[in-house]
## 1
Amino acid sequence: MSPNRKSEIHNYHYNCLMQILVLGATGFIGGHIARAALDAGWDVRGLRRRANYSGHLGDAPVSWVRGNLKDYASLRLAMDRVDVVFHAAAFYPVDGNPRKVRQQVKSAEREIQNVLAAALAAKVSRFVYISSLSTIGHPPPEANRLADERDVYIPGTLPKSAYYETKIAMEHIVMDAVAQKFPAVVLNPTAVFGPGDINLTLGKLLISVARGQAVAWIPGTINVVDVRDVAAVSIVAAERGEIGERYILGGHNYSVQEAITLAANVAGVNPPRFEIPLWALKIAVALGDILPFLPVPPNHLRTVEHWQGYNCRKAQRELGLVPRPFRKTVADALAWFREQGML
């Protein structure tokens, strides 16, 4: 069969069946994926734990199914006659206690295995897994380049970070399934901002900046991306992403100071005035480990030294990623927060 004929059949498949399931449709990224799929003319099914809750989707025409990722029966029912599953609800460790990392890794592994078992039984034709920037490792020092899809986080590098350890454990399980002919594509969004951040994933940072509460920045480099760009590329990944490939979905590399200053300028407030030194962050994290009742979030602060910029050209080249300006993302996010009464 000619490549052109294969492409014709492939496009016919996705343009005619169009039945998808979004795990995490009530969340930030998942909700935007559901909306992008609806805009593409696809029939969208969403899994939710709570009846009558639709996240930021409101009354969008999503067919809702009750269930959760720990309940195989509900997953299998939700995936019945589904062609594509978008998994945007992977396990997120809320407990930053370093003594509970292994326990959380096991929970994450059981959950993703449950999801994959249901998808295998349902014989879905494509599984788009929304992973994390944390599974992208650092390039070799001699490479003198930005991190890209070739770089993989080595488990145990940050043994006290439940976030890094759970995310790489789950991604490895997905890739092991790919080796057994499971049709998965892995997407690795960077720091995601934008309207619809109903759970204040990173939106709480923008709200703090807009309120003039961000008086300092922390050292480090980040890559920021708009949630709507992530969603649009997720749809393309379902159509033509290469099975077994990872794609970094990122936008712009900034120092933390640059990103917060830009956000402050958009909000019309004074930018932060000084940097919190790395040694002070380490003390804060150590205190949080020793005295867990203190309001210190060590789960992410402990990884600051691992933060880095990313090369996102693969997703741009193969999936058509065109990141919008971060200034636009911030402005739209702040406008949405105001509309919701959060700002």
Note: Residues 3-195+224-251+310-325 form a domain with the Rossmann fold fold (CATH 3.40.50.720).
## 2
Amino acid sequence: MSNSALYQPMQFGPYQLQNRFAMAPLTRSRALEGDIPSALAIEYYSQRASAGLIIAEASQISPQGKGYISTPGIYNAEQVTAWQAITNAVHAKGGHIFLQLWHVGRISHSSLQPNNALPVAPSAIAANGKTFTKNGYVPLETPRALELGELPGIVAQYKHAAQLALEAGFDGVEIHAANGYLLEQFLRDSSNHRTDAYGGSIENRARLLLEVTQAVTEVWGGQRVGIRLSPNSPFNNAIDSNSQATYSYVVEQLNQFGLLYLHLVEGATGGPRDVENGFDLTVLRKAFNGLYIANNGYDKAMGEAAIDSQHADLVAYGRPFISNPDLVQRYKIGAPLNELDNSTLYSGGAKGYTDYPSLAAE
């Protein structure tokens, strides 16, 4: 039985969490037609409500923000109703749940877009890679560059989605500015070649992210909003000539909004934790005025050490929570973990989603 502070309650903005575990946002491709969360998601999330904080899967803020088949949205009333059943179920078990707000930008395909339009991005530069559609995995297309006059509409979409998340009963929201999606595409100089007020200098490239953060905090207040960044991850071709300077500026500017937490991918998303090119992640940790959620490849021992050494305030676990709905209890008592079935990650249905056993069931 571990006595680590990882398992102890903590104050999290206006909330008292059961422990310092965060369930990371995990795309599972189970949404229904119309980007509506399925009834299966009620059981899936409530099974994992022993996590101190659940950050629900990335959810597109508009039909244009969609990049993969069967991902949920948060832009209309039907979606709000479906999410309400999920948040109610998590709250009934004493859990807390935030929603991650998402626009994929260029990481999409015309077959997923309204009227088969091209995906949008800061500049008409394609990313290497593929995305998942009804026809399987297909190569990413060269996106259309957003017009200057469209950017206020993008900000408005984030604000509308934030308002709907509030109506759906979430405890807060996380702005997804990581993993090579739209907001990070604006931040990175490899994907943003604009010559207007949203391109060129670091200040200009960060402008859209800061405007979105302003809009979202107008709905929620800073103490119920977090942000996810991945300054060292090359995922989805997120490359920058000077990440240290870019992200140091971003984090310093985010402090004006009084955000609850910074959720940082340490290293490559879903890959090595090594940080290259001399990037010092502790600079961002120290510069940010709120709480810090550490993410990427943490196991039991690493998580306990991160909390007990005060490296992090919470530790985000992803895949371990997929196959172990009672991960907190398993780690605390040193019980073995269920093995993850990778073939069911995005396969749809209950298999590999809601059928992993808990210790009690075993």
Note: DSSP finds eleven helices and 14 strands in the chain.
## 3
Amino acid sequence: MLGELATEPARVTWTEVSAGGVPSLWAIPADGATDRAVLYVHGGGYVIGSASIYRRFTGHLANAAGCRVLNVDYRLAPESPHPAAVEDAVIAYRWLLDEGFAPSSIVISGDSAGGGLTVAALLKIRDDGLPSPAGGAPLSPWVDLEGTGDSMTLNADKDLIVDFAGLKTMSDHFLQGQSAQDPLAAPLHADLTGLPPLYIQVGGDETLLDDSVRLAAKAELVGVDVTLEVFPEMQHVFQVAVGNMPEATDAVAKLGAWIAARQRA
């Protein structure tokens, strides 16, 4: 159902590829730039989801950004708990560099758990001494695995998708006894110094709203160029309805424009 919320994007082709051993799916827009790329990591609480489910969405994103999108099928829990996901994301990033993409031509993006993974990948790239990508664009990022934000309760009656109990189950599968404050699992607890520019989108009715608000505030405190955009009355990862819902189509257009601007900066 999630994969079919978006319309079928026009003039996009898809190609399966092994990105350094990580199964991935290229979304390639007709007439799109060949020297720029988005590395996209899907949502699903680290336990569900796939590149194929996000096929339509990443096709729309490829059109909006005017470049190809590498949609990564990173390993999922419980079979592959933390830190498998962040390892796979960084492997895919290294592969893009080896393929000749300049760091300044790459933006990392993802939604929900993939939004948290976007930030975690940027942290690991920094800590591993790799050249920084042009930016990160997390959508409704899950960065607090303990669910301590006020919006977890304040928006509980409005959020139709995400609740504390569901998040707790997913985080238990993902962590399997590891610390819920590990910065590469829950980037809200990380030192964000030195990260590239961030563009965060989130829905106003989400229980995870405060994950985005607190992440943006913490990034700004250490000098990261961060933009937070809250879309009133929107649900968790509403962007996946691009083409079928005006607010989603608008958000993806803004996301694509931000990505293209960062890649050309």
Note: The chain has one domain: 2-264.
